[in-house]
């Protein structure tokens, strides 16, 4: 398959191109579906050598998403057993080809995210939302992604997707041992320029998630 120009190809053409790779991945007999997703393979050497700024705020803080991969704790880049390394590489490539790593401000209602979400369902039929959150966290950070998702939950068009992504994000936080207090402090350490009511909603939703989880 010939290489694809990555700048301004239509989203559908990109999706078809990537689906060809997906078909290969699905039908390769040697693929081990239990292999963990890798977030380190194929990283640009220049990015790997740069010091990634953990204090840089993204998304709602000025409306700009950080165009570098965020320097997040190892626990936040946990391995996921639902994707093999080849599919994980395709997922990350699609994310960048669609320029989602460069999106400004609100991203949840964009056709690019919908295209990527549809592709992720084909790449990962076990935990596609968890894989999406893992990749998005890499670029936006926990704080900005939580705000993107919370704002989109009221949208008729993407509310269901946002709710599913929030559940996946909260599950990651719970596995890391986060509490409502630690998440509240995280958001306070990286305030955005809009009202703090959104952050309160995130904390309240996470509190409800933990309560439900602990009562099972």
Automatic annotation (TrEMBL):
Name recorded for this polypeptide: RxLR effector protein
Q: Which UniProt keywords apply?
A: Signal
Q: Does the keyword Signal apply?
A: yes
Top-level taxon in the UniProt lineage: Eukaryota
Signal peptide (residue range): 1-33
């Amino acid at each position: 398959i010939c290489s694809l120009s990555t700048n301004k190809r239509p989203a559908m053409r990109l999706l078809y191109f990537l689906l060809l790779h997906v078909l290969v991945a699905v039908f390769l007999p040697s693929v081990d579906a239990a292999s963990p997703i890798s977030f380190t393979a194929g990283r640009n050497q220049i990015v790997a050598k740069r010091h990634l700024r953990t204090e840089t705020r993204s998304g709602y803080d000025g409306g700009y998403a950080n165009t570098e991969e965020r320097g997040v704790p190892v626990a936040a880049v946990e391995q996921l057993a639902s994707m093999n390394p080849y599919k994980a590489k395709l997922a990350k490539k699609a994310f960048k080809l669609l320029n989602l790593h460069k999106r400004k401000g609100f991203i949840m209602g964009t056709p690019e995210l919908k295209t990527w979400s549809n592709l992720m369902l084909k790449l990962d039929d076990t935990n596609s939302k968890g894989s999406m959150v893992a990749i998005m966290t890499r670029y936006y950070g926990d704080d900005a992604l939580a705000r993107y998702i919370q704002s989109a939950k009221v949208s008729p068009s993407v509310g269901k997707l946002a709710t599913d992504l929030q559940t996946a994000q909260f599950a990651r936080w719970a596995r890391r041992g986060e509490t409502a207090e630690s998440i509240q402090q995280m958001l306070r350490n990286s305030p955005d320029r809009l009202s703090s009511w959104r952050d309160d909603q995130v904390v309240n939703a996470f509190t409800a998630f933990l309560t439900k989880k602990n009562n099972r």
